[in-house]
Amino acid sequence: MTEEILKVEHLNKFYGDWQALHDISFNLKKGEVLAILGPSGSGKSTLLRTLNGLENYKNGEIVFHGKKVQPSPKEWQAIRQKIGMVFQSYDLFPNLTVMQNILLAPTKVQKRDRAEVEQEAHHLLKRVNMDQYADTYPRELSGGQQQRVAIVRTLAMKPEVILLDEITASLDPEMVRGIEDIVKKLSENDHMTMILVTHQMNFAKRVADQVLFLEKGRIIEKTPCEQFFTEPQSERAQQFLTDMDF
Amino acid sequence: MDWTIIQQALPAYGHGFVLTVWLSLVGIIGSIIVGVIASLLQYFKTPILSQIATAYVELARNTPLLIQLFFLYYAFPVIGWRMSSITAGIIGLIFLGGGYMAEGFTGGFQGVTDSQINSGEALGMNRFQLARYVVFPQGFALSMPALAANVIFLIKETSIFTVIAIPELTNTALDLIGMYYRSNEYLLMLVIGYAIIMIPVILLLNWLERKVRYGAFGD
Q1: What's this protein's family per the entry (chain A) (predicted)?
Q2: How many CB atoms lie within 10 A of CB B17?
Q3: What gap in Å lies between CA B150 and CA B154, rounded to an integer?
Q4: Partner-chain contact B118 A77, CB within 8 Å
Q5: Is residue B5 within 8 angstroms of chain A, CB to CB?
Q6: Is B118 close to A97, i.e. CB distance below 8 A?
Q7: In angstroms, what separates the C-alpha of B86 from chain A's closest C-alpha?
């Protein structure tokens, strides 16, 4: 029996009069990897950002560990320590070294012991082959290297869920594979629960257990990953996969 | 060009020079302090205080120093606030400079990208942590060019103190020209006097800008 970690119920989001998300409902089990796919402008990133409180929503519920999230800044600050997020643009802090970037939130936000976090950080950096860059500044690193550090920075918070927002979209093609491998290992070895938004079908196919297919802010289908890529339920998803040359 | 004229005027220019440097220094430091406070009040949108800060910044930036000095030196004594010309000059310069500095810092804070702020938020930072660790370090670095421009501007503005008879460089030169009618010598000395101040300041500011922009960010 796998535990349900995150549940979204009847979520609606508006930008002014325009509705960006329509009645979104789904749930996520512990250890599950969910890929949110869909054409540009379908609301994938908006949905992901909503799950981390970076976007507000008009009505509906987000339930984390069986408890309804109250949409207040304070509550989100607490939840974000458990739901980490990695962005397309990496967004490491440019004025801090790799190690300082990783230590900042665990020591200042979570108030954990610095020496202990530093030890963990070295361990995590080794896992992504970045330990030799601990004292380097972000601008001296390639995009792929920065993204590895950004993943470590999120992992150092010991999150229960990680949201990955197009994390390979700004990378050179040869860097993409390395980042995908890291995500794959996080799923296989650490059973990390993740939700990823991507335009790269290969990435989704490699790591996801379930696919949530969105169009125009609506869920068109939620299908186990393998089935989605071989026999999607909806015509719209079939068309999408054909358009993506997949 | 008469060298004896220049020689005789040197001590007077020396005094003027020292006074200009001293007034500039006090004015710049005061302006930075006032500017930081005003920009922080605006950043945190502290109720009432942030509105006062905004009103102050607009008033300071949209009125000429000349008029500010007239108010301080000639109008305030009417309601019983009497002050020396030096005090009026310093208060005026800090009043003016504080507004410009605040605007520069605010511009820097606003230059920090939304995605950097999202990245801090996603790490669970509250708004004070976000300000302390993300917005301010980057924002102050971004505001360096504005700060440098303001420093140069404020040094030049000290020349307006001549209207309330503070014997700084410009006042010294105008006084001597008025007495001896030797504008060539006295104006040349005035230009050299300002050049001696401005050239090192500009070099220092350029160095500082480079250091803040690249040094801190690891280039």
Answers
A1: Belongs to the ABC transporter superfamily.
A2: 20
A3: 6
A4: no
A5: no
A6: no
A7: 41
List, in sequence order, every residue forming a beta bridge with A62; answer none if it has no partner.
A8
Chain A residue nearest residue B138, CA to CA: A95
* Helix (H/G/I), strand (E/B), else coil: B132: helix
Query: Do A29 and A2 form a contact (C-beta atoms < 8 A)?
Result: yes
Q: What is the ipTM, given to two decimal places?
A: 0.91
Query: For an interface test with B, which of A91, A96, A117, A158 has the most B Cβ atoms less than 10 Å from its Cβ?
Result: A91
A108 and chain B in contact, CB less than 8 A: yes
Helices (H), A156-234: 173-190, 201-207, 225-230
Contact of B102 with B35, CB cutoff 8 Å: yes
Can you tell me the distance from the alpha carbon of B75 to that of B68, in angstroms, rounded to the nearest whole number? Answer: 10
> Distance (Å) from the C-alpha of residue A202 to the closest C-alpha of chain B?
26
Say if CB B88 and CB B126 are below 8 A apart.
Answer: no
Q: Give chain B's domains with CATH numbers.
A: 3-215 (1.10.3720.10)
Residues A38-67: tens digit of each pLDDT:
999 899 999 999 999 999 998 999 999 999
The predicted-structure confidence for B82-123, as pLDDT tens digits, reads as follows 899 999 999 999 999 999 999 999 999 999 999 999 999 999
Closest residue of chain B to A137, computed from CA coordinates: B218
